């Protein structure tokens, strides 16, 4: 296998899961090792995914950084271009348990639950003009402040469900993701067409070692605000760069993915708002 997967799903039964993913979700089987209790598939974003049987003690050891092991109940997002086409194909493939959602931003999702309890969300991102994209990005800090309004220090430790990130941990995670975006965005502005190698990080290890669970969030909020304000200023002072692109990699051996400036800003908007939706859901569950 040329590259290791960076994502793993623990599944109840490998053959059942492989059949579901390849037949109904149109993923591709790359390798099946029944004796080892693992399989590799390529998802609709062409990313390699490890499927692991429950008896496999440490699937993380088979992953490259940044490692991420999902658990049943988690939501996995995939971006698609045409909502109606994706919906029609799933129905044609015989899938009946499909839910359609649309949020207040106009983002539409097809939600599919697999036999293991994972929720696959096929997302149609909101189409924005450069001006609207800039406005949406510039307003993220205000959205974060509104999502946290009137919460006490104790409220920050509330979770949507056991073993999910608390509100506090989500804010620290947003500080990390926002700060990591800075150099790639500056690179595409200064050196479009270049290769950008971003050091990988083991997400759960950073959550644990950097003590997301207990640290006050003030410095993380300040970091988010400062970086977003800095990037917003750059976007205003370096215009006509939305279609400029770089190849982003985690190691020099990766094939990498081409990403435009528009892609990067869209990802930051969607990633942040998705986590803010989680905070709002947490508040609703706990009547806060």
Describe the protein.
By secondary structure, this protein is an alpha/beta fold. The chain is 40% helix and 20% strand. It is built from eight helices and twelve strands. The strands form three sheets. Strands 2-3-4-1-5 form a five-stranded mixed beta sheet, with helices on one face. A four-stranded mixed beta sheet has the order 6-9-8-7, with helices on one face. A hairpin with a 5-residue loop joins strand 8 and strand 9. Helix 3 crosses helix 8 (261-285) and helix 5 packs parallel to helix 7. The mean pLDDT is 88.
Descriptive tags:
five-stranded mixed beta sheet, 12 strands, alpha/beta, globular
Show the helix and strand layout.
Blueprint lengths: L6 E4 L3 H11 L3 E6 L4 E5 L5 E5 L15 E3 L4 E5 L3 H10 L5 E5 L5 E6 L5 E6 L5 H9 L1 H9 L18 H24 L4 E3 L5 H7 L8 H20 L7 E5 L7 E4 H25 L3
Parallel strand pairs: 1-4, 1-5, 6-9, 10-11
Antiparallel strand pairs: 2-3, 3-4, 7-8, 8-9, 11-12
């Amino acid at each position: 296998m040329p590259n290791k997967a960076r994502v793993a799903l623990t599944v109840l039964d490998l053959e059942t899961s492989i059949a579901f993913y390849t037949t109904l979700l149109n993923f591709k089987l790359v390798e099946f090792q029944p004796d080892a209790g693992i399989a590799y598939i390529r998802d609709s974003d062409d990313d390699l995914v490890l499927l692991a049987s429950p008896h496999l003690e440490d699937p993380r050891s088979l992953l490259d950084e940044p490692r991420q092991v999902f658990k049943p109940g988690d939501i996995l997002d995939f971006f698609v271009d045409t909502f109606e086409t994706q919906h029609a194909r799933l129905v044609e493939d015989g899938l009946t348990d499909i839910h359609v959602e649309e949020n207040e931003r106009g983002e539409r999702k097809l939600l599919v639950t697999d036999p293991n309890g994972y929720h696959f969300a096929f997302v149609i991102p909101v189409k924005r003009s450069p001006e609207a994209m800039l406005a949406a990005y510039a307003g993220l800090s205000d959205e974060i402040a509104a999502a946290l309004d009137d919460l006490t220090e104790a409220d920050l430790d509330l979770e949507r469900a056991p073993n999910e990130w608390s509100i506090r941990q989500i804010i620290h995670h947003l500080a990390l993701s926002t700060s990591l975006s800075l150099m790639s965005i500056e690179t595409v502005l200064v050196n479009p067409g270049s290769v950008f190698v971003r050091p990988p990080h083991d997400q759960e290890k950073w959550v644990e070692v950097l003590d997301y669970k207990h640290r006050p969030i003030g410095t993380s909020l300040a970091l988010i605000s400062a970086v977003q304000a800095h990037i917003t200023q750059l976007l205003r002072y370096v215009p006509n760069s939305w279609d400029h692109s770089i190849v982003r990699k985690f190691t020099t051996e990766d094939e990498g993915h081409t990403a435009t400036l528009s892609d990067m800003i869209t990802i930051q908007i969607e990633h942040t708002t998705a986590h803010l939706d989680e905070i709002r859901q947490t508040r609703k569950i706990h009547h806060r």
